């Protein structure tokens, strides 16, 4: 899936990651249940809240996860 932007965009409400699939999720299991297999691709990154309340990033290294 490609999304091309030809002009500069001003972000009014910037977030560190604007991908709706990023999360953050409360657990890795929640993330795996929430991200459809059809859109999982190598490099897709998700955020998971760890026990300290900080976000850890995970990404798919292959498309068959």
DSSP summary, beta strand count: 2
State the helicity in percent bands.
10-25%
Number of domains: 1
Average pLDDT reading: 82
Order of helices and strands: HEE
Largest sheet: 2 strands, antiparallel
Radius of gyration: 14 Å
Main sheet: strand order: 1-2
The residue ranges in which pLDDT falls below 50 over 5 or more consecutive positions are none
Structural class: alpha+beta
Number of helices: 1
> How far apart, in Å, are the first and last alpha carbons?
18 Å
| CA-based shape | globular
Q: Indicate the proportion of strand residues.
A: 15-25%
List its salient traits.
65 residues; alpha+beta; two-stranded antiparallel ribbon; 1 helix; 2 strands; 11% helix
Structural summary, described in words:
By secondary structure, this protein is an alpha+beta fold. The chain has one domain. The chain has one helix and two strands. The protein is globular, with a radius of gyration of 14 Å.
How are the elements arranged and paired?
Blueprint: H1 28-34, E1 45-49, E2 55-59
Antiparallel strand pairs: 1-2
What's the quick description here?
With 65 residues, the chain is an alpha+beta fold. The chain has one domain.
């Amino acid at each position: 899936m490609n999304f091309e932007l030809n002009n500069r965009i001003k972000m009014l409400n910037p977030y560190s990651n604007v991908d709706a699939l990023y999360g953050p999720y409360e657990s890795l299991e929640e993330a795996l249940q929430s991200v459809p297999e059809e859109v999982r691709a190598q490099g897709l990154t998700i955020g998971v809240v760890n026990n300290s309340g900080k976000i850890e990033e995970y990404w798919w290294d292959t498309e068959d996860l």
